[in-house]
Amino acid sequence: MTVLGRPIYAMASVASEKLVPLDADGKDEIDFDVAANGMERKLTLVYDEAVIALASAVSVRFTQIPVMGIDIIREHATGELHVLELNSSGRTWHLSSDHGLGHQRDYGLDIYGQFNALGTITDALIEATRAMAK
Questions:
Q1: 30 in helix, strand or coil?
Q2: 3-state SS, one letter per residue, for 67-103
Q3: Closest Cα to residue 103, out of 42, 46, 55?
Q4: Could you read off the pLDDT of 79-123 as tens digits, one per residue?
Q5: Any long-range contacts for 68-77 (C-beta under 8 Å, 24+ apart)?
Q6: Phi-psi region of 4 (alpha: psi -120 to 50; beta: other; left: phi over 0)
């Protein structure tokens, strides 16, 4: 999650079970979950600088969307990062949402402490306010 382009927290969602490989030719029907959030999984905080830099770079390009959740994957074979989805509808404030609080409790995540969430958000808002006041 980013606020005004600044990383607030970053987490990885990894399936606990091995997924069936997809047909490389794309001819098979997909009748199973392809995302880890549809099955048993493990959530962990991420400190990967390349992932965090990509999320920040994407976020700052959307100046009208102050809070954004950005789904990023790393291609296993090449290590290349890909942005899959921008969650910008406003349902991404998981610092204090029931959804986010559940993740924090169930997986022992300190998303407030990862990147000093409240301090980072405060600094971002102060900077944006000053810029708009000029």
A1: coil
A2: EEEEEEEECCCCCCEEEEEEECCCCCCCCCCHHHHHH
A3: 42
A4: 999 999 999 877 889 999 999 999 999 999 999 999 999 999 999
A5: 68/1, 68/2, 68/92, 69/1, 69/94, 70/1, 70/2
A6: left
CA 115, 121, 126, 127 dihedral sign is positive
* Tokens representing residue 78 in the block: 């090449």
Is 0.90 topped by the overall pTM? no
Instruction: Report yes or no: 60 and 34 within 8 Å, Cβ to Cβ.
Output: no
Q: How far is CA 59 from CA 1, 9, 20, in A?
A: 9, 13, 33
86, 98, 132 from 23: Cα distances, Å: 26, 37, 51
Distance separating alpha carbons of residues 115 and 122, to the nearest angstrom: 12
Q: Does residue 15 contact residue 36 with C-beta atoms inside 8 Å?
A: yes
